[in-house]
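Page 42, continued from yesterday. The earlier attempt failed because a stray header line got pasted into the input along with the sequence. Redoing it now with the clean sequence only.
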Amino acid sequence: MEKMNAAITIESTSSGSTSGSASTLPTLSTSGRVDAVRVLKISEHKAAAQCLADAFATDAVAMYFIETPDRASKSAAANWKLHVNILEYIVAAHCMKGLALTVGPDYDCVALWMPPGQNMDDLCTILRSGMWRLQYQLSPEGKTRFFKEFLPLLHDTKAEVLGARDPQSWYLVYIGTKQSARGKGYARKLIEYVGQMADTEGRPCYLESSNDVNPIIYGKLGFEMKKTIQLCRAPDPIELDIMVREPVVGEGK
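This time it went through. C-alpha cells are written below.
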C-alpha cells in the first residue's frame, strides 16, 4: 500500500537483516545532501512513522481498521494515536527485516520495502517491533478487518499475481510524502533506488495502490496494472489496484 500524493496518493548502510536475499544495495551518498537517499535506522522509526501518518491521514485503507463501528465513540485524538501507533510498529518491523528508506531534510518521504526472501511474520520481529500490541489496541472489528481480511487478501493476491516469482520480488509496502514536501521528486528517488537493484537482479517490483491518481504516476515509473481487489466489510467497498514493475534489462534501462 502506498501514498505518493498523500492526502491525495516508501547515512546508514543497512536497515536490518536481508539474509536469504542476493540483493546488493546501491552505493548511498555520503555527501550530506538533503536529497540523498538513506537507509533508516531503528532509532528513527518514530520520526519516519510521523511522515507516513501525515501522508495517510485521510487514506481509506489506513482508516479501515480504525474507524470501525465498534469504535464510533472514540475521539479524533484517540483515532490519530492508534493510526500513528500502527505505523510506528510497521516502520520498526521494516527497519528490522526489510528496507526502510527516506529522503529529504526531515523524513520528508519514507518508503518501506520488503526484499526478496524476507517477511516480518516471525515471532521475534512481531515482539520487537510492537506489532503484537495490535491484538489489544484494535477493536474486535478492527482485528477482523486487519488480520482476517486485509492481510490474507494481500498475501493471496500477491502469490496469485506473481506466482513462482513471489518470493523473489521486491515488495513496496508503504511509500508516503509529507504534504509540505510534495512535488520534489522524492518518491521517484525512493522507487528508482530499489528499481535499480531489481533491474540488476532481474526481479519484479510489486505494490498495492489505494488511490485513484497513483496508477498513472506508477505507470510512468514502469509499473503495470494487474488487477483490482476490494475490502468489503465497510458500507462502501474499498479498492486497491495491484501493480507490477518488470525488470528492465539491456538498452531499455
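Notes: The mean pLDDT is 88.
Reminder to self: strip header lines before submitting.
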